[in-house]
Amino acid sequence: MTATPALVLEGVSKSYGAVPAACDVDLVVPSGELVTLIGPSGCGKSTALRLIAGLERPDRGEIRIAGQTVADGRTFVPPERRRVGLVFQDHALFPHLSVRRNVEFGLHGQPRADRAARVTQVLDLVRLGHLADRYPHELSGGEQQRVALARALAPRPAVVLLDEPFSSLDENLRAQVRAELVGVLRETGTTAVFVTHDQTEALSIGDRVVVMTSGRIEQADTPSRVFEQPATRFVASFMGDADFLRAHVHRALLTCEIGVVSTVPGWADAETDVDVVLRPHEVALTAEPDRSDDGPAVVAVEYHGAFVLHTVRLGSGQTVRSWQPHSVRHPVGTPVRVSVVPGVTPTLLVGDTAVSSPPPRG
Ligand SMILES: Nc1ncnc2c1ncn2[C@@H]1O[C@H](COP(=O)(O)OP(=O)(O)OP(=O)(O)O)[C@@H](O)[C@H]1O
């Protein structure tokens, strides 16, 4: 028997007037999974969370939480009866209540002794037991966010929804609070849907990354597949840097302006035009200082500390980028040879869709 997923969305759609904020969204989140939801501003991330939480009603489709239908054509379970916990970026703690009372808030209806025991338990979990009697304004931003997580976890929700929970924290604190919160979610085996606009955050904390655009899911996959095998041109360009070159496959050899890129096993009979996706860490440069033709040359050098990003203009005028180690700096104007790092199997696109087998001829 397969376990009941913590969360299921089936064909969920929601428009605001003419704006489609969720279009036919399908998503299954197994119990204990941490899903990150990412996409450009306005793509519908918050709407998806609000639909799951019950703060919005879908126009169509069905939402199930821990096997219970909470929204479909006939049913609409209100937020307080949905078994979801919410953590938002602005903490949303009650300023006039102590930490203990804030956490206890979600437990009304339970016997007082049980409530007190659970509050102690979740405050210990987020390592804030010693601050139980403080008020929100007496806490740091990171501590407030841990209280918000404790409050969300206290009623033992089936799913915790986090909407950009670290965006009000500064860069250094952010990494620390993120590690703490994710640690608590993992420790407690909590199922979570985590909205972020930060690609590195999405890739580093998610068991699965859901990439959205214009209300649609473009790809829902493991972090490495989303980055290394993007399903579409949009995912390739949104999740990390990517350059796209026109290329051709002939007898399993992929060639483009920079020469032979790689072999494409299984494409022996193919004769087809594609676009090849090149990420800057996949592009190698060799200086050719004595060359004097109009071939590839460095047009920009950006120092990033550990790595240096080189932008190269090819003979066609198109540019590609290449990460070079800290010690390598080819000055602007240096003629270079561009190649693909050995062993890389780049993503190929036909139109806007990634392909792993040759498209049918004709
Ligand atoms: N209450 C509303 N009334 C009208 N339009 C809305 C409402 N809420 C959201 N929208 C629109 O729906 C679309 C999706 O918005 P949503 O807030 O879900 O995007 P988002 O991906 O969370 O964006 P951001 O990253 O900027 O927070 C946007 O075009 C937005 O303008």
Task: Characterise this structure.
The chain has helices spanning 45-53, 99-104, 112-125, 141-153, 171-187, 199-205, 223-228, 233-238, and strands at residues 7-16, 19-29, 34-38, 60-65, 68-71, 84-88, 159-163, 192-195, 208-213, 216-221, 243-250, 253-256, 259-263, 271-278, 283-287, 297-303, 307-313, 319-325, 336-340, 348-350, 353-355. The relative contact order is 0.12. Helices cover 22% and strands 34% of the residues. It folds into two domains: 7-238, P-loop containing nucleotide triphosphate hydrolases (Rossmann fold, 3-Layer(aba) Sandwich), CATH 3.40.50; 243-355, Beta Barrel (OB fold (Dihydrolipoamide Acetyltransferase, E2P)). The mean pLDDT is 91. Helix 3 (112-125) packs across helix 4 (141-153) and helix 4 (141-153) packs parallel to helix 5. The chain has a six-stranded mixed sheet, with helices on both faces. It has a six-stranded antiparallel sheet with strand order 13-12-11-14-20-21. With 362 residues, the chain is an alpha+beta fold. Bound molecules: adenosine-5'-triphosphate. Adenosine-5'-triphosphate binds at residues 16, 19, 21, 39, 41-47, 197.
